[in-house]
Amino acid sequence: MTRFRSALAALVCAAALFVSAATVTESADRKFASLESSRLPAGTRIDLSTDELNAWANQKARIYAPGAARNLRLELRDGEATGYALIDFVKLRQATSGEEPGWIMRNLFSGERPVMVKARFQSYNRRARVDVERVEVSGVPIQGSALDFLIRNWLRPTFPDAHVNEWFNLGLRIERFSVKAGGASVFIAR
Fold this sequence. Notes:
Helix content is 43%, strand content 34%. The protein contains 5 helices and 9 strands.
């Protein structure tokens, strides 16, 4: 009977974790949907926890780039974030652009690699800026001119709507956002 109870307890814990993860993702989805609706009253503040952001990012990765990125995780601090993921760059490029990879891409970048990205955030007056400070792929740091090359020749062609190392308009009546340990807050313009 003890083994049965242990197995039952493990099953209940696993089910609780699954329901908890689904609930966190649904909460993040509701918050993003309310932001996109443009119906929030002026002065509204929407708070997103780190757990909500992580669950949402993992859900979107499964939907938009199946098999290309997994185990996404954000660590947030005041004005900065460090993101971690396992990424297959060839599958990611195919999922986002539909392009078949060339020989170099296929032979140098296929297969899953651990990736770390560290970025700083600024946001005010309906504008924002995300500055990528450091990237590591399989533990190899990419900074300076090599990072600029990666952004120009891989990130921007793969994600043409991404704004990195430049100011951009926020839209959706968003005045600003803030990033801090434990989550992020989005502020609707007054």
